[in-house]
Amino acid sequence: MQDIHKQAAGISRRNALKLGLGSMVAVATLGAGSRIVMAQEGQILKYISPAFSQDWSPLRGGGVPYRFNSFWNASAMYFDDKGVIQPYVVSEWTPSADFATWTFKVNPAAKFSDGSPITAADVKGSWELSSMPATKNQRIDQVLANVAGYAEVKDGKGTDITGIVAGEGTLTVTLKGPDPIFFQRLANHIAPIVKVSQARGADGNEVAEFYKPANGGINSGPFSLTEIDLDAGKLVFKPNANFFGTKPALAGIELTSVEDNVTATQMLKSGEYQAHVELVTSTMVEDLGAEFASGPTIPTAQHFWFNITRAPMDDPKVREALILAIDRDGLIKASFPNGPHAKTDTVMNSVPGEDDPAFVPYPFDAAKAKQLLSESSYGGPDRLPKLLFVGISSPANEAAAQYIAEQWRQNLGITAVDMKPQQDQYAGPDQNAVQIFRDDVGTRVPDAPSYLAGSIASSSGNAQGKMGGYKNDKVDALIADALTKPVDDPARVALAQEAQRLFRDDYCFIPWYKQTMSRWANANVKGMEKNLDWQVVAPWAISIA
Amino acid sequence: MFSHILQRLLLWIPSVLLVMLAVYALAFFGAGDPIKLIFLRAPGDVAYDPVKIEVIREQAGLNQPFIVQFGSYIWNLLHGNFGNSLTSGRSVWAMVKAAAPVSLSLGLCAMIVTALVAIPLGMIAGMKQNTKTDYFILGTAVFLWAIPAYVAGPLLMVFLIMVLPEGSVPYGWGGLLDARILLPLLVLSFQPIALILRQTRAAVIEVMSEDYVRTARAKGVPEHVVALRHILRPVLTPVVTQLGLIMITIVNGAIFVELVFGLPGLGRLTVQALTNSDYPVILAITLIGSFLVMASNLLVDVLYPLLDPRASGAKESR
Amino acid sequence: MSIADEKPTNLWTDAWKRLKRNRLAVTGLGIVFALMLVAAFGPWLTPYDFLSQNLDARNLTPSLAHPFGTDDLGRDVMSRVIYGARTAFLVAVTVTIIALLIGIILGAIAGFYGGIFDKVMMWFTDMTMSVPQLLLVVVINASLKQPVAQWMEATYLQTMNPIWRNSALADFVLVFGSMALISWPPYARLVRAQVLSIRNRPYVTATRALGLTNGIILRRYVLPNAMGPLIVAVSAGLGTAMVLESAFSFLGVGVNPPTPSWGNMISDGLRVWTNHPHLLVAPALVLAIVTVAFNFLGDGLNDALNPKGQK
User: Fold this and answer.
1) Average pLDDT over residues A447-464
2) In C, what residues contact A, Cβ < 8 A?
3) What's the whole-model pTM score?
């Protein structure tokens, strides 16, 4: 005791400093050592997000966070990368004979991250929560539009979808009409399953930021959110110990926001980060390799849509002239010379029936285009109102729009063309004077009539907003008819193809490309395959070689 | 002096209200509806459902007339309530409280760096007018002035990623004492340094020809004494006048610097709020920006008479 | 009375002599003059059509046929840079002239008349300065561009005068008009400060005693005295306006494609600069050279115009 005291008193200032430095070195070494030990236990996937998203609620059905949904949320079912439907929270589904009532069996093993079982009431509640207007889910229509009682909830007139009845381990869903592919509409992460008692308030609305760890966020997917700093744009995910599926291979995921794409590309190239949520650059393939950009083509396609109510697009001859004047092989070469996306001629792509031998692609015929323009009610290029493109926001969009404008200048003599990024908002029913919208259309189910119902049917947002209220009764009737046919009935595809051919003759769009759902992950990251829902199919299988 | 400050503060209130009204009106009537934007800006397979959107707008109080909305916003503001973001639902106060310190400390540091670098160099350049030293200093300053922050930023950033070992890339924010602040600080200071340096130089040249400076030099007073005793104070006058301008340069530069270096500050928040047409956030940022510039102008007013007795004499004689 | 009698012509001749001795300033003047020529005669100087594309010659590095290379659509970058000079020059001049005029008038009134005028003017100046510039421009741009474009299109269809079809014009009027409307305060503050510091100088007090009006005092004493700092500010302002235009293009609110501007060329170049550095270097370098030229010219003018500044 005495000795120790003596010693302590005898420490000189210099020695104290030495001791301090020494302990710092020791701590630093130990710290580094412990990091190495951690790394051996399992790998951390370092992920880049292209936006500082301020809202990571899994219930929005859109935005950048949506693309990350499958990492931490379970859905009813899901499509694998081959397009085959797989059970998840829901293990069995049986339609009634007329396809108007469906019974779903909830997987009895399904658990939340707190260990509590996922009940039928949780599934029903999650769907209702996603339907509430205040939740602002962008795509819930695609899932539940046909369910009895859905409309009341989404219009704010109720909190209970009467068509869904939660029983003991089963759900019975009554539809407004027959829908042979209703089960497919549930196989996505638009309305993931959340613990209703925690996520839903007494008024039926979402509890603000319920998903945050600080608020005791409970989730259902393979990983759980453990840290979130919305202001800094940093999120950390760790494996969910109570996950009811395959145990995740990764030790964790760190997500950082990097808004500058060139910086992000360099960080991926250097190995600092290994994956990206959505990287859109014109040089992705040459920068990061074909493996990074590879993936399945999904039922989504980018086109330039004509607003047929605005001059000069109100004249079908002008529309035809504008389409025929474009060499569309050049269009894809100007925008995606190295892929990953491929040229297309049709509205619908990557669904059964996409190949239609009877469909005649728009030819490139400058002479005929010129003649059509002079025959039109505008008589030629000079009297044509200025053509305005919107949605020209990425380098590839810009290259494509400029290519189109140049083709029109060369082949038709049109010089008055303008293009705007999305910061100027023109879209929607209250749009003004815009003739051409660049936007994608697609579906979350591998089904031809559903694809067309969401893109060219007069009830679709695309027809109403972007095509200025396009309505062709024959097209509508064919699509409506096709939607009632069973999946294995060839008429389902044939009717859709006929609708698409009729639409083609209305000359309302410039076909551009069909989308590839890239892995956006370095070659050493395995298991990053995505599906038509833009989700990583099996986040639990991801590993780093 | 105290009453003067009070007066300025009182005058600031109507002006900031007017500015906020203007910004609100422009955003409200032109830039688009934040709720519609959520659905419209998403890629194509989103159903644009006018009924549902109207319900959401109603719940958010966006269907009310412009003046009612603006009035209730101001009313809430007076009660210390900044409202919630219309797109993310987060409390605007929380967002601003997290972002403002980042931008403010960065901006303040940039100002200090600017003053410490630019004023001495500008004085040297001015006192050695038309010599090699002058040309070198001026040339460097002008070169820095000519490279916009958003070009210098990414170039330096990618250069560092290529050069530095894995894991040490200076990306993100760790406070003022973190080494990662160096690069953004440097990029942010380029333009203000050039601005102040040139102003200082021009002022020095002017003051150098004043009689009292000539007399002092003729009497053989050492150059550094002349510089500190006779030149520095009159030179600071026009420089201090530029304080507001520097503030604006830094605020503008901060937007790009924050985007490139991943700093969670007000600049990034601004860009995000603008693209989403998120009025409550836009207005809160306008308020802060306006306050900052007002405060720096107030500082100019307070410092001005101290530096230039003639100006204060003018004020008193009124 | 000798100061009042000094002929302005002498001042300018002397200034010119002094300017000629300053090599940097003369270089700057030469570059600015060249820019004006290029801006005026650009369309006749370009080796290629600035719009015509060649997809088989994309992203070519600089060569004899294409001194600055070609861009992602196979367009000749040099032709686009030359055409962009016109855009840049228009931007700089429009913004600066408007801002300067407003600044001088308001600043002089404030400084001279003092009292309530000063208070109101300064209040107005502070208010304008307190708006975050980029924010205001982006908001104005987003909200007013569309109505103006529609109005111009309607006018075109009535008059068939192609000037209304010039989309760059619409961008200038709005973006840079609004820029000008918020960038005058520095000039106003500068002029006011000069007025304040000169107002009570003995010779000015003396001239006032002689019955000279404020207008004459303004023209004879205040403006020539304020000329040095003002010209520095203007020369910087011209450069700044060009840089700001490119900043707006970077944020996506500048001049829209396919009209070439150095700003949108730089922001396009920034996206691919690790792969095709020439696409960034060419416009950025030209912009830097021109900005530097304006600055050297401004500094030279300042030294030359300030008769007391000579050694």
Assistant:
1) 87
2) 51-53, 55, 58, 72-73, 138, 141-142, 145-146, 149-150, 153, 156-157, 160, 165, 167, 252-253, 256-258, 268, 270-275
3) 0.80
